[in-house]
């Protein structure tokens, strides 16, 4: 039987994978739809660092309407691919270019391991949105962050790189196409170079790193350690990240 799925292939994923292979890492600015005011959008777009390759959209508590508006406006005003990074299945909109289909594999809360994913199926099954299975790993960034509060899961300690590597490999073996190391938005400490390096050496799928990155130096450290895509949200939102 021919399915009525209309998925558009893997354009965004292939770009990330190819950039990773060529050693030309990507850079994403994360927009929280809850914080984004449409009247400020042009200013934000102008302020994007030149090396920005993707715009991520998502937040812990944004509504469906906020997410849809953010995606629509970002697509209207910039030529960059818009990738959903949803904190909740309600934030999924087919107007984006791709969806990080996140499973919070570091935690043991079924809501974020599989239930949110099931809740998103009706929206996804007839959409052309590129779906990228992503193993999402929450790492202790030194402060309690929104993702920890909302997901009701404990972050993994940075003192046990072997365990983090095991979680990342379990994600890869389960068929995830990306691994995302997340220290949490506004984290005091980003994911350490040691952890990034250990995970990168173990997996053969692209590695995303985000949370608490505020300076050019921290960005360079993440890239040098092996991040294939780095995400910055808070520092850009506060106008402090212009590299
Ligand atoms: C994306 O949550 C991060 O992984 C963004 O973190 O807001 O601290 O940049 P910041």
Automatic annotation (TrEMBL):
Sn-glycerol 1-phosphate binds at residues 180-186, 211-212, 233-234. InterPro entries: GGGP/HepGP_synthase_I (IPR039074), GGGP/HepGP_synthase_sf (IPR038597), GGGP_HepGP_synthase (IPR008205), GGGP_synth (IPR010946). The keyword Metal-binding applies. One of its GO terms (biological process) is glycerophospholipid biosynthetic process. Its cofactor is Mg(2+). GO terms for molecular function: heptaprenylglyceryl phosphate synthase activity; magnesium ion binding; phosphoglycerol geranylgeranyltransferase activity. GO terms for cellular component: cytoplasm. Transmembrane segments: none annotated. Keywords: Lipid biosynthesis, Lipid metabolism, Magnesium, Metal-binding, Phospholipid biosynthesis, Phospholipid metabolism, Transferase. It comes from the Bacteria. It catalyses: sn-glycerol 1-phosphate + (2E,6E,10E)-geranylgeranyl diphosphate = sn-3-O-(geranylgeranyl)glycerol 1-phosphate + diphosphate. HAMAP family: GGGP_HepGP_synthase. Belongs to the GGGP/HepGP synthase family. Group II subfamily. Prenyltransferase that catalyzes the transfer of the geranylgeranyl moiety of geranylgeranyl diphosphate (GGPP) to the C3 hydroxyl of sn-glycerol-1-phosphate (G1P). PANTHER family: HEPTAPRENYLGLYCERYL PHOSPHATE SYNTHASE, PTHR40029. This is Geranylgeranylglyceryl phosphate synthase.
């Amino acid at each position: 039987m021919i399915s009525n799925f209309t998925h558009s292939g893997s354009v965004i994923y292939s770009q990330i994978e190819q950039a990773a292979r060529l050693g030309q890492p990507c850079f994403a600015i994360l927009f929280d739809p809850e914080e984004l005011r449409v009247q400020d959008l042009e200013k934000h777009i102008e302020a994007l660092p030149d090396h920005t390759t993707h715009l991520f959209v998502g937040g812990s508590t944004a509504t469906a309407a906020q997410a849809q508006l953010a995606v629509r406006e970002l697509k209207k005003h910039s030529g960059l691919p818009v990738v959903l990074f949803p904190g909740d299945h309600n934030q999924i909109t087919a107007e984006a270019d791709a969806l990080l289909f996140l499973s919070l594999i570091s935690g043991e809360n079924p809501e974020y391991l599989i239930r949110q994913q099931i809740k998103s199926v009706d929206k996804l099954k007839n959409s052309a949105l590129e779906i990228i299975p992503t193993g999402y790993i929450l790492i202790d960034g030194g402060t309690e962050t929104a993702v920890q509060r909302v997901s009701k899961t404990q972050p993994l300690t940075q003192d046990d790189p072997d365990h983090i590597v095991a979680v990342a490999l379990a994600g890869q073996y389960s068929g995830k196409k990306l691994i995302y190391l997340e220290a949490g938005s506004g984290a005091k400490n980003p994911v350490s170079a040691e952890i990034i390096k250990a995970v990168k050496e173990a997996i053969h799928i692209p590695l995303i790193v985000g949370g608490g990155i505020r300076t050019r130096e921290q960005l360079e450290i993440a890239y040098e350690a092996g991040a294939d895509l780095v995400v910055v949200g808070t520092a850009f939102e506060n106008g402090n990240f212009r590299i």
